[in-house]
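Protocol step 4 of 6: record predicted structures for both targets in the notebook before any analysis. Target 1:
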Amino acid sequence: MNSAKTPEYLACLLLAFSGLFTSCSPDVPDRITARPPAVTQAVESSSAQTAAEPLSLQVKISGIKGTDGVIRLAAFGSSDGFPAKHEKATYTRVLPASQGTLLFTLEKIVPGTYALAVIHDANDNGKLDTNWVGMPTEGFGASNDAPARFGPPGFEDAHVELPQDPMSITITMRYP
């Protein structure tokens, strides 16, 4: 039987689509890549705290320089991992880089407090590259256009409460 059509694999795809898993393997349906336990717990605890309907958030990224690589957006439900460890984010999206402005839509966001981080991963290596002193060599940004004074922006400076009116955020990219 083709394992890509097994009920386990189809269930995995559904969970991956909902954001609870990051990938599924059609060859080994019992081996899936789950989000880190802390992220799953954060999603579960956020869901338990509110009975509100999931939201959609429009995120406008402006000031993108160049078309190399990808733009990585991550929404963090806590300060853990913010802003650099996108693998700890509650929600993530990746789009090909495009000069100027990009629009992202984050779907099915549970109402709560989030801080958003974005990087222009020009070489598509999955991280924000830095020089020998730790200064970014690629573009970056955060919600509220939080300042990066002598280090990365802080969760407290970047956090937003959802829902908000309007349900859109603009982040301006900064480049070295």
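Target 2:
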Amino acid sequence: MHYDPLVFLPRRKCGNDVLDSGEECDWSDNFRDGCSFDCTCIPPYIPSGHLACTLCGNGKLDQGEKCDGTIGCSKCVCEEGYTNVESGCQRVTVPASTTSSTTSSASIQENQANNSGANVGLLVTGILLASVVSIIVVLVVFLKIKKPELLQSLKNRFRNEKS
């Protein structure tokens, strides 16, 4: 077992110039940018899959990065719906001949989002309508109990206006 002379704790194989299991980087005797003494990457550096960490977001394609700072690039990896090209990430497009017979998942998601907005509108309308009906029912019950003569007068007025 190796001991770290700085803290007197047993250490893994960190520092052996090999990227061992559990290590994000390996600094060895040669300090590598962003790699700490416990073989983890120091933010803003991220693991590159190689001995050194990479500084994602510096605008250049470093070892282990698939992209750096381009549209569709997140943490130096192309996002879903994008693919790697030499200059970074490019949106994956479906050929026009296949889009006419099938619906893309993006358009399905867009339709679902639009429908959910319409559903919310219908829900609000339904709640308002139920509230109005409830108020009318409460008013009719109140008039029937407390003011039956006023309720009869309103019924008669309504009948006269219809004729």
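Step 5 preliminary note on target 2. The helical segments are 96-99, 105-146, 148-162. The chain has two domains: 1-55, 98-162.
Proceed to step 6 after PI sign-off.
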